[in-house]
Every structure is written in structure tokens, then in C-alpha cells.
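Input chain follows. Return C-alpha cells only.
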Amino acid sequence: MEVLPVCWLWLWALLLTPPLGCVELHLSETLRPGAVLANISSGPGWTYAMDRTSSSSPPHDLLRVDPRDGVVRLSRRADCARASRNPASVYFRTSSRASRDVVLTHFMVFVHGQDCFIKYRRKTAASREPDVRISRFLQLAATSCLPAGDVLVNVTRLLPAFARRVALTDAACAADGGTTTASASLSRGNLLLLDGDLCASGARRDAASLRCALRGEAGGTSGAASVRVSVSVRVVTASAEERGHVPESVRETHNGRRRRSTNSPPQFQLPNYHVSLAENRDAGTHVITLKATDPDDGDAGRLEYVMEALFDSRSNDLFAIDARGGGVTTLRALDREVKDTHVFKVTATDHGGPPRRSATSHLIVTVSDTNDHGPVFEQTEYRDRIRENVEVGFEVMTIRATDGDAPANANMVYKILNGDDDGNSVFEIDPRNGLVRIRERPDRETRDRYQLIVEANDQGKDPGPRSATATVHITVEDENDNYPQFSEKRYVVRVPEDVAVNTKVIQVEATDRDQGNNAKVHYSIISGNVKGQFYIHSPTGVVDIINPLDYEMIREYNLRIKAQDGGRPPLINGTGMVVVQVVDVNDNAPMFVSTPFQATVLENVAVGHSVLHVQAIDADSGENALLEYRLTDTPPGFPLAINNSTGWITASAELDRESVEFYTFGVEARDHGVPTMSSSASVSITVLDVNDNVPTFTEKVYALKVNEDAVVGTSVLTLTAVDRDVNSVVTYQISSGNTRNRFAITGQSGGGLVTLALPLDYKQERQYVLTVTASDGMRADTAQVFINVTDANTHRPVFQSANYQVTLSEDRPVGSTVVVISATDEDTGENARITYVMEDNVPQFKIHPDTGAITTQMEVDYEDQASYTLAIVARDNGIPQKLDTTYVEIIVLDANDNAPLFLRDAYQGTVFEDAPVYTSVLQISASDRDAGSNGRLSYTFAGGDDGDGDFFIEPYSGIIRTARKLDRENVPVYSLKAFAVDKGIPPLKAAVAIHVAVLDINDNAPVFDKDELFIKVEENSPVGSVVARVSATDPDEGTNAQIMYQIVEGNLPEVFQLDIFNGDLTALTDLDYESRREYVIVVQATSAPLVSRATVHIQLVDVNDNMPVLQNFEIIFNNYITNKSNSFPSGVIGAVPARDPDVDDKLRYTFESGNELNLLVLNEDTGELKLSKDLDNDRPLEAPMTISVSGRTTPIPPPPPPLSSSERFTCQ
């Protein structure tokens, strides 16, 4: 069957559609089956089907199209786990029932939902393949033409229904190649033929090709989504009987141009083939068989297949194609994690020719995932520290594991394997994001270290799930939450009063279950240390005696001990009690109340008469104070005796003044202590003669005052009684009113001296009424003595509390009252008026001397000092002054007065642009001098800058991670802003700048400005000269952006050389426009392993380097003579047959000789010849003439000199 000539017309249209978009389908996992997705109907007379060979699988199994109405619906629920490519391509074929017209519609399908990952690719407008391809056939009879103005195709009618609203504007189309000079334009949706006729001929001829750019707006809205439409119009030359039948050799294809040739080119069924292949399959696995058809017979129909990787040269090492059969197999196992998509250009070349004809298609191999990678933790061991007693829900850390597999096989689930062992139930982990939280409040005193085994399981299904484990070590840091505890509730110790100074009495001990400074206990005495006899060593709790004890003064001390830890704030236990019982030692000798003792006695007193009361006192107690009296220095037969218990001296025999008038002897008082102590006094007794006068007091009533602090033995009063008898001796004694035997009376110089025998106590007795008797031995008189005891400063002030503990917020203003303390004094008057002072100067505080109010006099700062201990002294105003001391413990409470402070002014980090989501970039850290919740920090981007959501920060660890895939070519550097926020009320925060540099990887192939480049080069350019520069750009940087250039096709024989580094194109031979007008080469830009190609059309520009060509010629014309006149031809009788190989030259024609009479008229521009009106029959029948033809190019100044030639011709 004869191959019919075909004329090709290719039109490319860029159409804008409504903003909803008609080239993308977005499917949600929640969308129900049966939902209408799109309408691709072209009207009645068409059938609709999915092109499964070109479509990806999945998602072609997600969609179905009604073959009759063209409505596309969802066939089953979308599932990201089953979407190996997202997005993926789907093609629908619309076929006419009445003709061979075909419409191929291309959609990009996106699946959205949980765990979906959509890989967006940047595509330039030039690199996008058409979204709608229209193939239109026109059949013409041989040698017939389509006149200018005819409609080639109604583009709007053939568009799918969803694109019908596109308003198309006119755009001119220019012819490209071939012999046709026709062009086309778009008007009201119709493609009209312009500028010449489009003719078909039975003879072999080159195909015509037109390229057009059409634009439109959807409903007049700018910024709408765009659609690329390709329209191919094929003019088929056919006989009348064949008209209406399209031969097999010219059935529709979707790309390229086709030329009529005896050796027909092969043809692939599809322009693109998509196939999916699981990774890790053995080498030699069959991928796909690509078949091209060629209608020719013999060698012209025998095809050879060649496959070449596009974009990434590594693909060439993984696949091979059978040169004869087109079967594609693997050369080695594939690894999706290394490269998941391989794109090849497949060429089928026949063995006919010359020239040999070829066809190209593209093969896209998608490597589907198998679960061949296990999870990998960022660290094999994690370590962190937390404070005990943190609240439930506190976020400890985030544990991350990554998996190189696809999302379906990298759906990470986290679990604590030993969560129920050894108290690990304190922690829990979020199974999805690996966040470890507090489930129960930890207590360091119960357990201070935890070791968790965390498993990450990828939930893979092919061949099965994989898991990995990491160990998490968590140390619980101490909080000051335990008070010191004394080992005993009450310490009792007995100490002899004569113990040496600086002797250890006892050691108290308190323990604190906390740790470090929180467990360091310091001791102090807060009360009971009367007169400061004791000292406690603060670090050890050893109590020493620092002043002598005196049992006779104080017999027991009750020391209140305070144990305070070193926490902030400190915890205090003030319940320690040490009872020091002073044991008496016999260290006081008896002391007589008076010495010497004197008395008189009548000689006639009866035996047993009490003569004198001798009294001694002993400050000791018990047996040490039990006294026994005896007389000393007495001769035998001594008439006086003493009661050894009471000290009364009585007459033991009759007295006789005439025998002995005066007795002098001694009295000894001895205690029962060990060793025994004693003292002596002298006694003088005068024996009186009997008389008859009564002694009479000079005053009957005496009144006086005695201070209660008068010392024992003080003389109080002397009473005098007068006896008128001669030589009468008056003796005095207190006969009544001597309560508690406070007073004693002795005779002295004829009078009775009242002295203080025991200490007074104002609180017990404030007045004494003594009855004193004066006796001369027989007769007596009495007098009353009123003694008023005046108050002495005998009582010291006593504080209401031995220890005060108060709290003070650090934000209280200066002058605030902290606490009011008070003491009482049982004395009266000035003795009871108390003045308060601080024992040591603490500049932050002062105390009011009268009220005891403690106030602040400067700001306190918890961060500088968490507590203060003030020693407050209360002094009375008696003489001498007495005092008491108490301790005020002021605990400073923290206020949120310190903002967080970052450890650095700014943070720098780097991350590769292909880093997986959740990759750790850097960690920021801040501190806060406040305590508790005021110092507990969290980190956030809220109110700052998170790089438009490209990063997120873990709130408690401060680790900054990637939230999505990064692209350095879009954003090379991020300037982030994060905050550290405390949990105070109101919260305070601090900001920090974070600079993250995205490191480049070689993920972008070099890009030429256009897929086809057109270069104008003047012919005759010097050999070795640079005629042009071919350049591509690479958005990567550094070594990843280094580009190498090479010519890969079309340079046979070698005419040009391309500089490998800068793309300079150098001519290696002479370029002659008249020999060849255009060179087509394919150049490749390589940024290993990524490549891209462009077709370069080198079009030579003609220069005037050829002489016009003109040979001798003859013009013969006929002259018809009538009766009226000669009838010479009036029109053009011929033209000068000159030509110039330089196509751009413009010829000029002139006569050189033979036309001196101007019988011929020569058009200087066209060379057309006409006869002059002056010509008549009288002229010769033959006239030889010479014409000169000169050629000149359309000049770019300065023009070259014209070239000319001249020839002789004969006009008959």
C-alpha cells in the first residue's frame, strides 16, 4: 500500500482555567466512593476510557470513568499507605466514533490525609507536559489546498467539559520547517489558516509544522490556574476512494512531528510509559517491554532500541533494554531509599534509509517500597534530669526514630517495654510522637534513677514490621521537700555543776532525706539558753558548756534546738528539746547569819531554858544542805548545850553568876555533803543578876523599806530597849511575823540588830510585820517593825515565743512590716519597760525599739539570699538591765521578678535540605534565677518566627526540629525567633534569634532557558571562533552547581566544539549558508549525576559572498500587424533569468549596451522586460543587447560591495 503524503500542523496552546483547577485532583481519605471528581465530556459521539498504560498504579485503581458521559468518579476510598507516589499521573482517552480524532487528558492526583506525604516538584512552564492533547485529522485529495481563512479545528468544541469556560484570545502561529509557508491564528475558539494556502500533493514532500502560543483567562479572572493544550492537525493526502480512511501509518501520536518519507519512522504507542517495581528484586527482573511499530518492510521495519537515563546518570547502571525486543530488565537490585524514580528516554531506530528513522518515548520507573529499613533512633542512649515532684503530664523529653522507608513502612509507634517493671510506671510515652511524660509524681527519696527501654516499631507490612530499642536514663534531682528529723524527741542529760568550761554535754542529730545542700543540717539554740551557758556547733550539733553552771542559781535548762537544712527556701524543724539537769555538788559551806552571837541570861533560869538561837544557812541542797550544829571550845561540865538540828542553845545545868559571869565558846555548823563542809561562829553569853524593871523599847512601831534584791546579811534595823535596872542585860528576839525566816535579830551594842537572813521575793511577800521582844531575862517588852519590800529588777523580759518563723515575699515594698514580736516582764515600772534591739546589724531590716515591729528598710532579693535569721534582744530599763533573746527566721518567698535568660545571645545551626521530618537541628537553653514554677521554663515559637511552619520546638527540651521537608533553593537561610517563657503569674519571657542555614544537596538538574534554542550565526565565521554560548543554570550552590557541557547528538561530522566548562560553542569548519542552512545538535548540561538536555538550532545567516548567475538568453515575441496599426505586446514579454545563491541578496538589473534607443523597458528591481511605445516595424527583427545584474544584501551598515555579472541576450 502506498504511503500517503501527510502535512503536519502542531499547535501549542496555554489555556487558563478557573481557580478550582482542572489538571489536579485532590482526594481526601474521608471522601466516599462514588463521589464525582471531574467531567471530561466532549459531547455526543465520543467514548471515554482510562489509559492504564500511561497512568500510574496506584492511583489509577482509585478512579473510574463512565464510557458514555465522561464523568470521573471515585471507585474506592483513598489510602495514603497504598499511594506509592503522591502525586501521581492519570490519563483519560476520549475517542471520536465518527473519525480518528482523539483527546488525551492528563490529571495529577493528590491524596490527602493522616500520615500522607506529598512530594511537590517545582516545574517551569516550559518543562510541563501538556494537560490536554488534541489530535485532529484532515483528509485532502491530491494536489488540493486549504485556502487561507479555512477553519482547521474548533479547539473549544474538543476541549473537555471542565475547560469549556476558558476564554481564548487570538495568537499568531508561525511556520517551523518544511516547505509550507502557512501559519495559523485562533479566533473565537477556531483555529484559522492564515498567510497562504495549505496544500497537499501526491509527490514526496517535507511535512509542514506550525507552533502556536495561545493564552486565555477563565471568566476574565487573572491569576487563574493554567492548562497546557497541544493541538496536532494532520493533513492526509488520499484518493477519492481512500478519503475517509486514515492509513495505519499515520494514526495519531501525541508528540513530535512527522514527515512524509519512503522510509516511514517507527512509532511508539504512548509518549510516556509508567511502571512500578518493588525494590530489592533480584538483578534481571523484567520491568516492561516497550514496543514501537514501523509499517516498513525489511531492514526499514527492523528496529533497534536504546535507552538513556534523563536527569540522573546513575539510572544507566541499574537498567538495561534488549536492543531487539525492547524488554527492560534490572541490572542490579534497586534501592528506593537511594533513588525512587528513574526516567529514561527510549529511542527506537530502524535500519532503513538513509537516513535511518527513529521514534522516542519516555519510561518512568517508580521504585515501590519494601520494609527493608528498621527504625534508627537519633541516639542509642538518652539521658535527662528532672526535678522530683514535677506535675503529672510534665513533658520530659521527645525520643525520635527515623526510618528510610516510605511512610507506609515508617509509621512509627513508640512503647516503653519495661514500663511496668521496678516502678517505671512513673513515665508514659506518646505512641505517635515519642514524647515521654510524667504519669505519677516522682519521689527522689523513693527512687532517684530510672532506666527505660523504649521500642520504636515501624508497622511495616512487607515483609513485616521492624523495630529498634533505645535506653533512656532519667535522673531525678532533689527538691527540698523533707524537713530535718531529730533522732530523739527529747534529749535529757545530767551535768554536775562543777563541770569544766568547754566540755561537751551532748550531741543532737537530725537527718534529712533530701540530697546535697538540701540535706545539710545546721543547728542552733533558739531558747532556754539562760545567761548563755551553752553553745551548739552549727554543723555537728555538739552542745558545749561555755560558762560555769551553778546549781544554786539554775537547776535545769530546757534548750529548744532548731535544725535547718540548706535548701532554698530552707525547711526548719524547731521541735528539738535538750533538758540539761544540773547536778548539785557540795560546793557551798554553811554560813552563819551573824557572828559573833551575843546573849544574856539570868542566873536563875530553869534548866532547859532557851538562851540563844544560832542559825546558819547552806546554799546547797539535799544532804549537802542538811546542817548539824555542835559547840566547840567548851570545858567539861559546861552548863550550856545546843540542839544539833535547830541550833538553839539551852541551859543544861543551873547557872550561877557568882561562879561564872561570862561564857565564851564556839559553834560549828557542818553539812552532810561529800566532802563535808563546815563553818564556825563565836558565841558570848553573859549571866545576869535578877532584876525588877521591864525593858522598854524606845519606839513601839518601826517602819522601813527593804529592796528585794538586798543581799543576805544586810542590816535592816537596830531596835533599842532600855532597862532601868543596874547591870541589866536586854536580849532581843523576833517573836512573830518572820515569814519564811527571812530575818534574824542579834544583840549588838545594847540594841537588837535586825538582819536579812534569806533572800526576799517581791512576788511572794511585799510586807513583813515583825514583833520583836526585848527581855532582861524575866521581864519583856515588844515592838512592831513594818518592813515593806520594794520591787527590784529581779525578772528578765520573756518573749512570747522562743522562735519566730515568718515569710516575706521579695516583691514587698520597702517599709513593709514583717512581724511584730513582744516580750513581757513581771517587774513593774521602769523595770518592766522593754526596749527591743537587733543583736547584729542586718541592713535589710530594722526593729522599732518600743513596739517590736520588724520592717524592711531595703529591698530583699530571694535570688541573693533565701532566708535571714535575726537575733532580737529585749532589754528592760531596770538597774541592772536584764534581757531575753529570741530568733526570728524570715523566709523570703520568690516572686516572678526575673525574666528567663538565654545562655547565648543568638544560636546558629545547620541542616541539610533533604533531612527527614523531625530532624534535630539544634538545642536552645535558658535559665531563670527564680524558683519553683517561677523558674520553670518552656520554649515556644508562639509570637516569634518558626519559618512559616518549617520548624517546631519541643517545649521543655528546647530542641528545634524540622516540621516538613526543606528546600534550600526556596529558602537558604531561616531567621527564627523563639521565646523562653516561665510559669510565673504573670509569666515573663525572653526572646532569642536563631539562624539556621540550609545546606545544599545536589537535588536540582541544570536547567536551560528553553528546551529548544535558536542561534543565528553568520556564514563564513572564522574557524576556531566562538559563535555562541550555550548556558544552563543550576539552583544548587557550590560544587553541586558546577555544570559541564557536551554535545551528545547531531554533531556528525564534527562541526562544532562545546567548551566543557563555560559552554562556548566553537566552529571547527567553514560554515556555508549555501551548502547547509541549519545545524541541529543536542547539548547536555551535567551536574553529576543530574543532567538535562536542550536542542540547539544553529541557523546560518547568509552573507553576500556569491556572484549573481546569468546566462545568455533570448526573448522572442510576435507582432500582429493590422490595417490600422502595429499590434506589439503591451505587457511583460519576459524576464531576465538571473539568480543569486545568496538568498537575501536583492538583484538590480541594468542595460549595459544595445538599448541605446530605449526600445525595451527594464524593471530594475524585478528584471521584467516590456516593449517601448516607440517601437515600430521599422526596427530590425533581432536586437542583441547586454544586461548587467548586481546583487546587494539588505544591509547592516556598512554594506559589502555589490557583486554583479553581465550577459548578452538577443531580443527577436
